[in-house]
Design a protein that fits this description.
The chain has 54 residues and is mostly helical. It contains two helices and no strands. The protein has one domain. The longest helix has 33 residues.
Length: 54
């Protein structure tokens, strides 16, 4: 059983950077395609303001 868990952790550890790079590329492509940096900034600002003023 311990062998299964160690291999599972190794597998996850190997996949993690791949998943992060994929999500980063997807987010970058979405921003590049929308070209709405102001809207994204306003949305982020609203979210941060809401969290800080709850």
């Amino acid at each position: 059983m311990t062998g299964f868990w160690s291999s599972w952790w190794a597998f996850t550890f190997m996949l993690t950077p791949f998943v992060f790079s994929l999500s980063g590329v997807a987010i970058g492509a979405h921003i590049a395609c929308s070209r709405d940096f102001n809207t994204i900034g306003e949305w982020l600002g609203d979210k941060i303001y809401q969290v800080n003023h709850d």
